[in-house]
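Minutes, structural biology subgroup

Action item carried over from last meeting: produce the structure token record for Glycoside hydrolase (Runella aurantiaca). EB confirmed the sequence was re-checked against the source entry. Recorded below for completeness.
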Amino acid sequence: MGSTVTSSDITWQLENFAKAGLGGVHIIPIYGVKGLEKEAISYLSPQWMQMLTHTVREGKRLGLGVDMTTGTGWPFGGPNVTPDMAAKKWQYTNGQLQSVLTKQAVKRAATGGAGLVLDPFAVDAIPKYVQRFDSAFATIKDLPRAMYNDSYEVYGANWTDDFLNEFKKRRGYDLQSQWGAFTDTTTALVKIDYHQTLSELLAENYAKKWTDWSRQKGFVTRYQAHGSPGNLLDLYALSDIPETESFGSSRFPIKGLRVDDQYEVDRYGTPNPLAMKFASSAAHLTGKKLVSSESTTWLANHFKVSLSQIKPQLDELFTAGINHIFYHGTTYSPKNADYPGWLFYASTNYGINSHFWKHYPRLNQYVERCQTILQNSQPDNDLLVYFPIHDLWATQARASGGIHLLEVHHVDKWLLKLPFGQLGEWLWNNGFAFDFVSDNQLQQFKPNASGKYKTLLVPATTYLPETTLTRLGELTKMGVKVIFMEHLPKQPTGFHEQKERNEAFQKVLQTWTGQSFPSLQGLEILLTSANLRQETWAKEGLKYIRKVQGSKVVYFIANQDQKFSEGWITLSTPAKKIGLYQPLTDKTALLPMKIEGGKTQVYLKLLSGESCFLMLDTNVGEGSAAPAYRPAVSNAKPVRQRGPVLADIKTTALQGTWKLEFIEGKPYLPKATTLTQLRSWASLSDSASYFSGTARYSLTFDLPKGFSPTQKLTLDLGDVREVADVTLNGKKIGTTWSLPFRLDIPANTLKNKQNRIVIEVTNLSANYMRLRDTQQPEWKKFQEINMVDIQYKPFNAARWTPMPSGLVGNVTLEAAKN
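Output recorded by EB:
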């Protein structure tokens, strides 16, 4: 914030991050703190570079990577951006076409970083812009790992000074000669040409030149292409690490998952795996190891985000092909700052003052275990899906500047409306593994001997470049099966010499006639008959990604619905043995399996909210023999949530008088009490309703009739707000922080009589902030936007009602019937 930093506080913060299990940090200078203006360090000044060097060196000492934005705030811009370099739009006045400034300034700029936004289409804008960084880094030896480019967010820019010349050179005619067609809302071809030109200029003059400069300086690049008017697949592919974004909360039908009721879906949209797959597809097709994500931005309001809400969002990213998580967002905050420290205006806060800081390492362990596998394996997808961006460009754009901005927030406004989006949703929900491919990528794509991407689907499309049609024909001769959905394309893209080109286009199309053009209704039979692998259990709400580690197939599976709990599932890949790896607990086991009709079936138990890896034909779980399941259900279908197998589980709620003691937290410790019925501690007293911290529940109980100490039992804590550390008879059995809140109890942990259970529960900081904002709201002392809530209104927690805290319902023991 304002680059108001000291070397000692940087070290203190980095040391804490390393202890918490983070892998690195990312530097984005933004607006500062009120009253500390004189202490702000100007961006790229010698003192700023000294602090950067200290950060990089300390990162190396602690094993932390360090990345930085090529600028302050976002998007690129600053004091060195002169009007000739700044973002522009076209203006048509009195028959004259003019290039005028948008006058957009850098958003959330830091000291020394304010100024106009850079023209993303100009041929010399990036070379001039990075001269400032050339000077600053001229004598710097300790470099950050990566340069970073945040999401596009250049609003209203739709032109550059040399646009007309570039357009004529690339499209073959003068745009001004067709100005009426361009501005006519019913005419498509000239609009396509206009967008095509913008897209090419953006890729060549902005993304590529920035990436090339970064690599020359010794940096890798992380690039968020989304939000731009270009072809996202081509733009992501230009970077070393394509990066998507997960903003807001998905509406997963996971049992017990809550979402912030103040989050405005209509305003901000929700995360969508199809949008994420643009970044991962670009990485998969170009062989990039890392695909990253700006993750959990505005997952819930400030002080209300729980670890149990974070995990499903990360699991969605993993299934979409992301393997390099960046949490968002955390500000530098000095050690002596009063609680809650310096905060970013957008949640989620992953900083040292976060209410989940004590348990943060458990989230990081989970992510690290997942990423270790996902980063060291390759995609195992059968299908390529062509992205017909020209059909989108042919439609009327609603964004400022009259151009299509392909954002990740409102995919319903562009992606899901296209037949392309509808096809992608169908494939995702029906268990076919796929990647997207662009026109340019098709030209580079070569089928390999392994048969990867052996089928290419072309969604129902109107406009197709002739070069793409020709390439599709070449690919069929190479053994790739090309399937046009619903119908053949209607005409080639581009206005220039359209009549002559269309005649040649139609002749080529005739070579494709006589084939079937399936709809979504007939696609499943067509794909399976072509021996494309289908994971039919995806229809049960199990989201997955299938990868290959060496020659072994690996599945990451997340249950993000309530349709499935346990049962036999049929894998599309044959296997002789199947190991289960649970990244949450780091435990492994062999799973029961069988061959039915030549297909490999495995018995999987995965409750709503859980995730796992299936490791085919590896040594995972070799230490114990696979159990022999005899489920009382059909072998052909998985068990649904209220299926017969669950009826074979006996459960009993722990009965007795619970002692509740408040042991650590703010603003002070409420009095201890007893409970015969568990409920939110926020409802017990006024003081408890403001408490944020940890409370201890304890109970002495006898093992219920029908339960044996020698059994392997499960403890289900029900609705936990928010994290529970559990001890049984003096033995720590685990911490549960994600849905479902369950822990396995090792055999012989319990006794028939006089068992003592101790459960320490840590809640959110929201209830304390209700009091803090009433009594001491001066912590909100930040410049510019200061603090806003999830609806971007001035933040005021004093208006909130108490959030449920502690153990909100029954704690139960479970055991499988013999």
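Discussion: The two ends are 60 Å apart (CA to CA).
Next step: EB to file the record with the rest of the batch.
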